[in-house]
Design goal:
The chain crosses the membrane at residues 6-22, 29-50, 62-81, 88-111. The chain is an all-alpha fold. 89% of the residues lie in helices and 0% in strands.
Length: 114
Amino acid sequence: MWPLLLKFIAGGSAVTGITWLAQRWGGRVGGYLAGFPAVFLTALAMTAWGRSALTARHILDTMVVASLGALAADLVIAWVAPRIIGRWSLAIGLTTLFTLWATLAGTSLWLNAR
């Protein structure tokens, strides 16, 4: 239970802090800090915690490879988000962006599993 709670607190704190900094110092700083791998590193550390070295290594290697597809999808979303949000309402734009991300990342995951 503690690892899950710690993951929730660390991830939530990182997102909240970066959002606050972006609002205070602008999108350039926020975008730069959003690339900081706090959530990813926390997920890796919490996944490895309490496992044998061999088991942890196998799981972490798989997580890193699988995250590459999500990272590529993130880059696409970062490029198209300003265009979509600017044209449509926030709700439709976010729904479209999430669907696009899920499709791209899911396709990558599916290709990686083959």
